[in-house]
Amino acid sequence: MDYRQLGGSGLKVPVLTFGTGTFGGKGDLFSSWGASDVAEATRLVDICLDAGVTMFDSADVYSGGKAEEILGQAIAGRRDRVLISTKATFRFGDGPNDVGSSRHHLTRAIDGALRRLKMDYIDLFQLHGFDAQTPVEETLSTLDGFVKAGKIRYLGVSNFSGWHLMKSLAVSEKYGWARYAAHQAYYSLIGRSYEWELMPLALDQKVGAVVWSPLGWGRLTGKIRRGQPLPATSRLQAKISVDLGPPVEDEYLYRVVDALDAVAAETGKTVPQVALAWVLSRPSVSSVIIGARNEEQLRQNLGAVGWTLAKDQIARLDAASATPKAYPYFHQQRFERNPPPVG
């Protein structure tokens, strides 16, 4: 397993991270992802560690905290071998302060995560979204306090806009507070908007991308093709999952899958392995989160590492997945002094 720097920090992380959204299966959304209990989760963790996947990602809202609880039990006795990342900010309770990135909510969220995980520190703690109602200074000073107290090792964010992240980095620099090293962002062959602004920012400010849903919300598994019904176990069978996931037009998806099929045939790899390898080849990417309902899916996803795509294969996948850029990005790419980080 290859390791990369997490942004500009000194922490090295495996290029693949295991996501625990499939642990627990509580509620309509997460039950459509999977429902691993402690026994199955422990088996998946065993396979990950054998393959060198040592980072595990969770969040308080995954199955209402159940995913964190199961993860804590699955890694019991092996804390020194793993890196744990988790997230908070989204609503976790019915009260007026049970949401957001205020000092009140973050303190309860971090202490709650530590309790559910049964550990005394979190390697990477990420804000799950940007809270526009809490001053950035309040959020960052709170997180810096947790870093100084030893309860958090590294900080990150998820789903931030470019200005959200840049403002936060500027405030951290101004006060000498702990800095965001990671941005957990959506990026896939059928979701390339990350490249427009967030990737240049990441490269300039040394913020490592920890990519979520690199298979396009379950669409690049190799089981979804033109004229065929959805697989019975797909998360796309659940309306709530479709509604909350990134939108993709069918013809665009089929065009990308056709290109993936061609490259898969040339390489002897599967469609999801090729799709994951493409994301791993992109600038700014520190780690890619893979999920799995079962051992078979996990082992297939692990096959995305240990080999690389040829330049012409990457170029063909780039061309098949290219989409028109929004303003001002289409205008900026015409200026020779402002080239994009990727073609």
Features:
single chain; 343 residues; alpha/beta; TIM Barrel; eight-stranded parallel beta barrel; two-stranded antiparallel ribbon; 40% helix; 15% strand; globular
Largest sheet: 8 strands, parallel, barrel
How many helices? 13
Question: Strand percentage, roughly?
Answer: 5-15%
Low-confidence stretches: none
Number of domains: 1
Structural features, described:
This protein has 343 residues and is an alpha/beta fold. The protein has a single domain, classed as NADP-dependent oxidoreductase domain (TIM Barrel). Helices cover 40% and strands 15% of the residues. The chain contains 13 helices and ten strands. The strands form two sheets. The protein has an eight-stranded parallel beta barrel with strand order 3-4-5-6-7-8-9-10, surrounded by six helices. A two-stranded antiparallel sheet has the order 1-2. The longest helix is centred in the C-terminal third of the chain and has 18 residues. It is globular and about 50 Å long.
What's the structural blueprint in terms of helices and strands?
Elements: E1 3-5, E2 12-14, E3 16-19, H1 27-33, H2 38-51, E4 55-57, H3 66-74, E5 83-88, H4 103-117, E6 122-127, H5 136-148, E7 152-158, H6 162-175, E8 180-186, H7 198-205, E9 208-212, H8 239-244, H9 250-267, H10 271-280, E10 285-290, H11 295-302, H12 311-321, H13 329-332
